[in-house]
Amino acid sequence: MSFVENILNLFRHRENNKVFNIEKIAIFGYADAKPESKLYQDAFNVCKILAQAGYTIVDGGGPGVMEAASLGAKNGGGKVIGVTLYPEDTNNYEGVSKNNPIDEEIKTTTYVERTLKLMQEGQAYVIFNGGTGTMSELGMAWGLARIYFGHHKPLILYGDFWKKIIKVLSENMLLRPEEKQVYRIVDTPHEVLKAIKEIELEVESEKVKDLKISGEKGFNIEES
User: Fold this and answer.
1) What element of type H or E holds 155?
2) How far apart are CA 178 and CA 172, in angstroms?
3) Within a domain: residue 66?
4) Full residue range of the structural domain in which residue 62 is found
5) Residue 163 maps to a domain
């Protein structure tokens, strides 16, 4: 059997199952998304599919996209880790949602601490539309992917609108070539799962090398 046939057989075998290297997927997006919105429903459906495939969902334990992610994961029979924030001096913060059904809670006391913990816990990141909080999380994830390029944690940008944003950034900022290789843009829940599988296939075909489950500090995929 040829190398290509082996890879195709591997892909077929995993059509509805999780890949080996990635266990936990962190979700980022708009905290004010309403249940009736497409954004909320997309996050729900993405995480339902991921949970059904065997992945654990990681989110911030709040409302909006975070709540939708947890509800979708639970609907798909999966586990949810909530990295929650209990600030002492922050007024303009959405808080922890009582409707967010997390299974395991990791408590933090500052926004930066929570962001870093989300980066550590997730082994791949799905980033939906959002506000400045989502922008800061994207910036952190993107910067870490560049620093650890080659054994980085992949970014999956959900929504066709990301193409316009990336285009504007590419035309007006000084992006390095590798910074354009760490993300994928998708527009449906099934494309999210497909993208994660493709990442695994790249690892096994040695297009991307030296990947394990987690790094020592949690910000990269550990080198073998």
Assistant:
1) strand 155-158
2) 17
3) yes
4) 23-87+94-204
5) yes
What is the distance between the alpha carbons of residues 94 and 29, in angstroms, rounded to a whole number? Answer: 13
3-class DSSP state for residue 159?
coil
Whole-prediction pTM: 0.84
DSSP secondary structure letter of residue 21:
S
Residue 68 contacts residue 31 (beta carbons within 8 Å): no
The enclosing H or E element of 37 equals: none
Total structural domains within the chain? 1
pLDDT, tens digit (0-9, with 9 covering 90-100), for 67-92:
999 999 999 999 999 999 998 877 76
If we measure between CA atoms, which residue out of 195, 211, 194 comes closest to residue 203?
211
Residue 152 belongs to domain with CATH number: 3.40.50.450
Digit-coded pLDDT (tens) for 87-122: 887 776 777 888 999 999 999 999 999 999 999 999
pLDDT at 3 over 50: no
For residue 70, tell me if it sits in a domain: yes
